[in-house]
Amino acid sequence: MSELSRIGVAIDSDLLAKFDTLISERGYTNRSEAFRDLIRDELIEKQWERPDAEVVGTVTLVYDHHVRLLSEKLTDMQHDHFHHVLSTLHVHLDHDNCLEVLVVRGQAVMVRKLADALISTKGVKHGRLTITGSGNSL
Ligand code: NI
């Protein structure tokens, strides 16, 4: 870990009050950690803009497994990208619905392409790609 730098930030009182409320609701006990997390979030977003960046993330999918061939289609896509899918968690939410969470890793452009393909598959009710970093650059 590099040494700590202290900075002063001038901020509108109303904005700061809103920020304090927000971070308190999220469980932060001090502003510094909240600021650091905001900065890390922006850095990760920036990192993902580079198509060749190595990234880690999760893809969350909710779908109805009764939709004809949908489970097979989603599994086929994952096999086509087996080197990008590190692990999959499947939960049978109820009689009809399944929740699947994939841990993905690879070049940003490939990971996003896979996530877009899965999420846009007909029958997938909701999907989201969550991006994060490997932790090394943060
Ligand atoms: Ni299921």
What does this protein structure show overall?
The chain is of the alpha+beta class. The chain has 2 domains: 13-47; 54-132, 2-Layer Sandwich (Alpha-Beta Plaits). It has 4 helices and 4 strands; from the N terminus they run H-H-E-H-E-E-H-E. It has helices at 13-25, 31-49, 70-80, 108-119; strands at 54-64, 85-92, 97-107, 124-132. It has a 4-stranded antiparallel β-sheet with strand order 2-3-1-4. It is elongated. The chain binds nickel (II) ion. Residues 65, 90, 92, 98 line the site of nickel (II) ion.
Q: Any descriptors?
A:
138 residues; alpha+beta; Alpha-Beta Plaits; 4 helices; elongated; binds nickel (II) ion
Radius of gyration: 19 Å
Structure annotation, total helices: 4
Strand order of the largest sheet: 2-3-1-4
**Low-confidence stretches at least 5 residues in length (pLDDT < 50)?**
none
**What is the CATH superfamily classification of the largest domain?**
ACT-like. Chain A, domain 2
How many distinct folded domains? 2
